[in-house]
Write a structure and sequence with these properties.
globular, 4 helices, single chain
Length: about 260
């Protein structure tokens, strides 16, 4: 497995995505995306939040815009470690928000998830979405023999996949037509590429359930909370061998592209 990370340029959109007027809670954030989970709070990738400027960067959605008043990252470790962040907005936005999945999805449950929906706020005006499926749940990513990053990713297949600028977008369960009441499984973090050919192998989304305690604690002082729902399927024993095989494929994939 190669050791290099490649960083894709910003301002692209989901490959094989479709434009839509739905998904109001997905908005543009610093040239990437974010998901409104309460009236003053946006969930995004940590590497997106690190590029924001408090007081001048904005979250822009179909329901309006609001300046960034503060950013909070789970960890100070470099990408791709714990690539999740919260952004506090200076004013409230009146948008129906998604529910957050409150139970961490394991590898044995991935095959039972069925069709999933990825959404970005970038360049498929105003939002773009695509159907996908997950093939693995990964808690770490072994970039080389010496260092393993803590990622808590759901890995999705490559037919529809993220590109630069899609970071901080959403991965929803099922096939919702809008973000209101949809079940948010993860936020977009990275593109996985073959270290030899550069071919895209899939996309990586940080599982929100892995960070529930931190999300709740960070938002608590504002008096706002995300809405959590438990909706994880039972494990599928039939496909464990297939999942194991895909895990091997993921481990020999040597390149990660940060997509924000």
């Amino acid at each position: 497995m190669g050791s290099a990370f490649s960083f894709a340029p910003a301002a692209h959109a989901i490959v094989n995505g479709t434009a839509t007027n739905g998904f109001d809670a997905i908005g543009e954030l610093g040239g990437a995306s974010g998901v409104l989970i309460a009236s003053n709070w946006v969930l995004t990738a940590a590497h997106v939040a690190s590029s924001l400027t408090v007081g001048s960067s904005s979250f822009v959605s179909q329901a309006g815009s609001s300046l960034v008043s503060a950013t909070y990252t789970f960890s100070s470790a470099d990408f791709p470690n714990d690539d999740i962040a919260l952004v506090r907005l200076s004013s409230s936005l009146s948008i129906a928000t998604p529910f957050l999945n409150d139970e961490v999805i394991t590898s044995s449950q991935v095959a039972s998830l069925g069709t999933l929906t990825m959404v970005s706020a970038q360049n498929q005006a105003p939002n773009g979405f695509a159907s996908t499926t997950a093939y693995e749940a990964a808690t770490t990513y072994q970039a080389d023999a010496a260092v393993a990053a803590s990622v808590n990713w759901l890995l999705t297949n490559g037919n529809a996949h993220l590109q630069g600028g899609d970071s901080g977008g959403a991965l929803f369960a099922g096939t919702p037509a809008d973000s209101a009441g949809a079940l948010l499984l993860g936020v977009a973090s990275a593109v996985l590429q073959d270290g030899d050919t550069g071919a895209t192998e899939g996309s990586a989304f940080v599982q929100v359930a892995s960070y529930r305690s931190w999300i709740d604690a960070t938002m608590a002082s504002s008096g706002q909370q995300a809405t959590w729902v438990s909706s994880v399927p039972e494990p599928s024993s039939m496909l464990l061998l297939a999942i194991g095989g895909m895990a091997i494929l993921a481990r020999r994939t040597g390149q990660i592209s940060r997509n924000g």
